[in-house]
Amino acid sequence: MDISSIIGCVSGVGFILGTILMGGPIGMFINIPSILIVVGGTIAATMIGFPLGDIIGIAKTAIKVFMFKIEKAEDIIANLTEISNKARKGGLLSIEGDIQSTSDPYLAQALQMTVDGVKTEDIGQIMEKKMELTKKDLDTGSAIFASMAAYAPAFGMIGTLIGLVQMLANLDDPSTIGPKMAVAMITTFYGAIMANLFFIPMSDKLKGRTEEEITNMNIVYEGILSIREGEHPKLMEDKLKVYLGDGAKEEKK
Amino acid sequence: MDISSIIGCVSGVGFILGTILMGGPIGMFINIPSILIVVGGTIAATMIGFPLGDIIGIAKTAIKVFMFKIEKAEDIIANLTEISNKARKGGLLSIEGDIQSTSDPYLAQALQMTVDGVKTEDIGQIMEKKMELTKKDLDTGSAIFASMAAYAPAFGMIGTLIGLVQMLANLDDPSTIGPKMAVAMITTFYGAIMANLFFIPMSDKLKGRTEEEITNMNIVYEGILSIREGEHPKLMEDKLKVYLGDGAKEEKK
Amino acid sequence: MDISSIIGCVSGVGFILGTILMGGPIGMFINIPSILIVVGGTIAATMIGFPLGDIIGIAKTAIKVFMFKIEKAEDIIANLTEISNKARKGGLLSIEGDIQSTSDPYLAQALQMTVDGVKTEDIGQIMEKKMELTKKDLDTGSAIFASMAAYAPAFGMIGTLIGLVQMLANLDDPSTIGPKMAVAMITTFYGAIMANLFFIPMSDKLKGRTEEEITNMNIVYEGILSIREGEHPKLMEDKLKVYLGDGAKEEKK
Amino acid sequence: MDISSIIGCVSGVGFILGTILMGGPIGMFINIPSILIVVGGTIAATMIGFPLGDIIGIAKTAIKVFMFKIEKAEDIIANLTEISNKARKGGLLSIEGDIQSTSDPYLAQALQMTVDGVKTEDIGQIMEKKMELTKKDLDTGSAIFASMAAYAPAFGMIGTLIGLVQMLANLDDPSTIGPKMAVAMITTFYGAIMANLFFIPMSDKLKGRTEEEITNMNIVYEGILSIREGEHPKLMEDKLKVYLGDGAKEEKK
Amino acid sequence: MDISSIIGCVSGVGFILGTILMGGPIGMFINIPSILIVVGGTIAATMIGFPLGDIIGIAKTAIKVFMFKIEKAEDIIANLTEISNKARKGGLLSIEGDIQSTSDPYLAQALQMTVDGVKTEDIGQIMEKKMELTKKDLDTGSAIFASMAAYAPAFGMIGTLIGLVQMLANLDDPSTIGPKMAVAMITTFYGAIMANLFFIPMSDKLKGRTEEEITNMNIVYEGILSIREGEHPKLMEDKLKVYLGDGAKEEKK
Fold it and tell me: How far is A220 from chain E, CA to nearest CA, in Å?
């Protein structure tokens, strides 16, 4: 699982709880109606703005992103080099077995087309379109989180406005002004935390994940075309290793 | 109809009403002059910013988007495959009947040009331009909602400023300060709800819809060019099915 | 004249005046020094930010946009079809008369070059560059309005800050605090109205107008190149009619 | 010198001073510590954000932009036409004298390469790269002003926060609350003026200036390539005059 | 080391400390819980938003950017010219020694490929991809700082909200209101300083550094391809010197 996210979530919540507890009891920061309007409003607005399928999809994507590690580029390149060697020795048909054993449907389909003798150009077109569609899917996920990051503080403010209007309309008892305002401000507090500790970082992480995913798909794409064209495995490996970025900047001192 | 939008609207309004009712009577949140300046100002600014035709068009588009489902990509591909098979067996003229039976004018015109023997290149150019113009139309719709989402809170603030100035100019009776400020803040409340529960989500949904629409048009575009060129129906179907996205990411586990 | 803008302006001002009058006399919302700093500051900042020529140009453009209707695409296509027919029957020289009778200098110059026998490629290049320059001019106009939309609320806030500082420095007489704050807030009110009821909508309208203008220039561009190449008038008309957009989306039900 | 900027600066400062003086003495708006934190903080942040060379460069650029007029496109075209005529009559070598007499190093270098008989393609490449680098330089200038426009209000707010914290920590003497708050707000006032009357407009003007500069460089670029290729001077002049924009939009009535 | 950043940091902190000390003791601006929530929250959100590797990488990058000077373009060009001369005289193999002596792995790998006789096209492709990946890496760094610049004020506001809610819930003793509010506002103060004096400027500087780095890589790229193609060293030098920008704009007076 993604260790960085866990540390971030736990420590972020910890810092906020700690700050609250240093100043007084936690009880006054828990207010069910406030939670309802901020969480409920955010979800409601998101449901109007995006198709149900996408919203459910984003939940799945989120779990996947935070629970599973993406395949390492090194492993993909090693796997492709092996397949390339096999194809060079035994012909394209000899790689048919790898189609079953691969867990990546993108690679599997590309191998299938290679074995079937589909033209390089057609393989390229189909793979490019798949990459494009995957990118669009992941971008939609990132966009949904970004939208929620905008809705949460907005509904926080709406909740605060409701509380303020109700307080201002009944100023008879001055001693209740403070506590009422405190309650009114809690929705703004919830909205700010939801946006800044959850939705914005998750949108960022998904964006980064999308780039990694597309880089991996690019490696598979270039590797398969190279195999289809019968390029030497060593040359292919050299070209793909550029993606590992152990070159230029990193070693520059 | 679009079930996600209905749930979102109903629950969003519900959460807000619920939060209000838990704190006091709903009456103080209904204020006709406040509604007039926020709704009226938003519409007035939109009318200055966009041609009347576009504004009326956007209303129609909004109804269509929220009332009707877009055609499924699967059905479009199945239909195109059928037409391709017919054309392969009986020649391009045999698909003339499909022109009448199709409800999509984009497909109908493309079929007509195919039957008429217009050059592939010319068909392609005309279809591309149509796609581009449809995209521009839908983008205008999304832009109008986005503009309204910006105007609504602005006129909410203008209404609040009017209320505050009037209150501040007459501070004689301290007991009226609270209620007057409450009323002044209601326009800000209206503006925030209009923007965050309606205009922004609707702009988002329209953006998503535009993408689906253009994807569908792309499928028709590629299918028609394939039929015009006499490509094998099976190959065409394979290529179009990439759009269904049941590949790469989805099945990746 | 542009009916939508008139309705918008009149009703927008009406809603604001109505809201004010329902709450008290209009007098307290009219304050000459406040008008001076918001209007003056906005104009001053715009003059630093843009060359004098552009600012005067934008005033003219604004009048043109709000007073005159743009030529309809239908009429341009009909005119081009007529010229194409004439050229087909009587040769390119026969269209020399149309150069005088056209009121659009873009079309006139293009016709002149066609009659003069300038190469299609050169005509294309010159027309493309003209389109590009027209777009840049109109974009500058839209950018100036967008800048003014940002300056107006900023100088509104500067005015309010001046008023608040002066009020806070002299708190001796509590009874004057309210009225002084009311006056201080009027500049913020002016800035918000100027931006949201005038500058932002005008920038939006100019943006939309630019698109229409460029679409029209594109129609002329494609039409002239088609005439220069001697394409059949009917084919040209069919291609240009795509721009009318009476296809795809509109008729889709 | 740039008359529009002078009028803008003088009138902008005038409107602000006038508004202040109408409400009270100017003295309370002058506060040395407040100036220090806003001006100092803005400069400090800019120094961290940009290399020293760029910051000094931007000062020079600013002076140049506001003190010197850019060469008129008309004059550049006239000059190029003259050179083109000379080259046509006396050969490319006859224009060697113009290299010394031109004050524009971009034109001078281009002429030198033309006289030296460098291949058209190589001249084009070098001139394009020079244009690109000039654009990047000017864009950096505009970006620095835009950054300062963001820092100034931020440090204004930081100054106000310092003042408010100090005031709130010592509420013993209520009579000092007002004046202290007044002083605290002055930094916000300074930041708003610096951003809206100076940095934002200067960034805008620099952006406009960049476009003019690049247009001029484009004219020289096209002119030189035309001379190098031995195109007829009249044809070259016609092509370049498109840049003067006395066509399409302007004369459209 | 980067002198501009040091002056900026020292003077920026100095101006803020000076302003504080002119108004009272520094003690009330130091509050450990406030530092914890702003710094801690910012780091926590960043850890959720970006992979751990990237965050650690950014720290290293930051140190490098602020501690080491980038290689001067002049030196790179001089070095390439020397290598080009050597290759011209002694053949491509004679430059093998330079591979060891160069400290830039980007140049080293390019030289190695040149010596190995890799095709110009392949060298070009690999070098372009390396540039692209370096740019993406540096852009990620700039994006992380920009994210932190957004989180810091947000957690400052969250801290202030916590303080305000706690203060409002206990208004019993009016004499504590001021000091409590002062403490509450300190987190906002911290967030504003962290964003405006550190994260935003650092993001800006990293962006500028990225451009310089890429320009240098472009020089190496063009130089190596020129050497591989056997172009004359003088011609190569002339082409590369365009990057020094001692042309057009700079000398224009």
Answer: 16
